[in-house]
């Protein structure tokens, strides 16, 4: 393990209740979580497998650690003694990924690390808590017309097998050991920090190319699927609210608005005076979620008094703007 001590020293009088550990701090969700937690005054330790932090370098304590090593994570928890743990690390891939080849890594990171954190809370910090980044995919692949936290769940691929395993594990520790832990059923959420192989970055890149005068069409698998897209940055602020005010509850985080991908492309390109059909070519690859659905965010509103306000078009516009801004200097 290698440590990068923060430049900002903890303020006098801070106790264990203000220490937060973010697993997956170099990822899209984790990096935004670190920022929100720092803004709220937490002492933050971030964990990812890379040697150095990608974002917020120097502003928090960073530990390079492979979460497949349960013993190393146990040692870190014993050393740092966090009160709040945010597990947003995951082995996953873009839509259509085959998970068989990465199952052992997925099991270790998505499930095994969750168990290590729960055992730490049970044995060392029963007053603490865990927030786990689950997935709305557990309600699919054929989403019901209206989804709530009570909707039927299923394991439709190895990724959802792992997510459901962690969900059941957390429920077990809540029931048997009174551990304060929550699962956030996160529906699609994107940002300028998302990898280029995902749908929204591809869409924003195609629009940017069209605005620059590109004439050839960019190939995309299909636009004939439905999705609820939100802002990763906003979702992680909401995640912090749940951790502070509603820990122990499992809750859906979504915008509550579902788009047909073709309608989103039409709306986004039309805002810039363009016809998306001149710039995107569909390969005709079948995708999941071919029927419209709507996600209820009533429980989220009841628990923390807010729901996401940024939608798919907002996120795409921000991603488009970020393409012309120099990247943040990385640590």
Give a description of the structure.
With 331 residues, this protein is of the alpha/beta class. It is built from 9 helices and 16 strands. The protein has helices at residues 28-39, 70-80, 103-123, 158-177, 199-211, 232-245, 261-270, 298-304, 312-322, and strands at 3-4, 19-23, 43-48, 61-64, 84-87, 129-135, 146-147, 180-186, 189-190, 218-220, 226-227, 230-231, 251-253, 259-260, 280-282, 294-295. The strands form 5 sheets. Strands 1-4-3-2-5-6-8-13 form an 8-stranded mixed beta sheet, sandwiched between helices.
Radius of gyration: 20 Å
| DSSP strand count | 16
Can you tell me the overall shape? globular
Give the overall pLDDT as a whole number: 91
Looking at this structure, what is the CATH superfamily?
Answer: NAD(P)-binding Rossmann-like Domain
Largest sheet: 8 strands, mixed
Count of alpha/pi helices = 9
**Fraction of helical residues:** 25-40%
Q: Name the structural class.
A: alpha/beta
Uncertain residue segments: 1-17
Secondary structure elements and pairings:
Layout: E1 3-4, E2 19-23, H1 28-39, E3 43-48, E4 61-64, H2 70-80, E5 84-87, H3 103-123, E6 129-135, E7 146-147, H4 158-177, E8 180-186, E9 189-190, H5 199-211, E10 218-220, E11 226-227, E12 230-231, H6 232-245, E13 251-253, E14 259-260, H7 261-270, E15 280-282, E16 294-295, H8 298-304, H9 312-322
Parallel strand pairs: 2-3, 2-5, 3-4, 5-6, 6-8, 7-16, 8-13, 9-12, 10-15
Antiparallel strand pairs: 1-4, 11-14
Helix pairs in contact: 1-6, 2-3, 3-4, 5-9
